[in-house]
């Protein structure tokens, strides 16, 4: 990779790290679930989980690809948990904002979860792209999972979901979140990757309290 690109990537990473470490500490009385646009599971599930993720976060990728499918099978699809998704791009991550917009466009065709997963799987392919090259890649990903590419591309070009992504980002900042992934499990905040066994313990405890 050319030295200039390395320096740009390093600079953006340091900017994001500084924002995480020294950014706002949070406002009281905010509901992390309010206004969430994307969800899995029954609306009346006894336990609610809110997931603040970043599509270029390795720990978020690990969770999305290796833990969430088990949670979906054992807790979400069985009606025990309602799982809400929120976007948490860091400052300087225009490509993560764009990927989050693309996921919202996939949601218009009823495929948010599938596209959310494929964004993580393909992160190494689009993570260094910008502008038209990034958009072409995101549209190609949509086609790979069977979405109608014309409608998807028109949605992405319109930018109509950008403000929603930025609203999620602002909420994360207002909540004082310090890293990704951050989860609210039955209202209790947990920052960082959690192995499935820890998820199981936390969810079973929350379900017992909800009975």
What does this structure look like?
The protein has 9 helices and 5 strands. It has helices at residues 3-22, 58-76, 94-108, 112-121, 123-126, 131-144, 149-158, 162-174, 196-210; strands at 38-40, 47-53, 81-87, 182-185, 188-191. Helix 2 runs antiparallel to helix 4, helix 2 packs across helix 9 (196-210) and helix 6 runs antiparallel to helix 7 (149-158). The chain is an alpha+beta fold and 211 residues long. Strand 4 and strand 5 form a beta hairpin. Strands 1-3-2-4-5 form a 5-stranded mixed sheet. 57% of the residues lie in helices and 12% in strands. The radius of gyration is 17 Å and the shape is globular.
SSE order: HEEHEHHHHHHEEH
Secondary structural class? alpha+beta
Radius of gyration: 17 Å
Distance between the termini: 55 Å
Mean pLDDT value: 91
| Number of helical regions | 9
Strand count = 5
The coarse silhouette is globular
Helix content: 55-70%
Oligomer classification = single chain
Strand order of the largest sheet: 1-3-2-4-5
Uncertain regions spanning at least 5 consecutive residues: 4-9
Main beta sheet: 5 strands, mixed
Indicate the proportion of strand residues: 5-15%
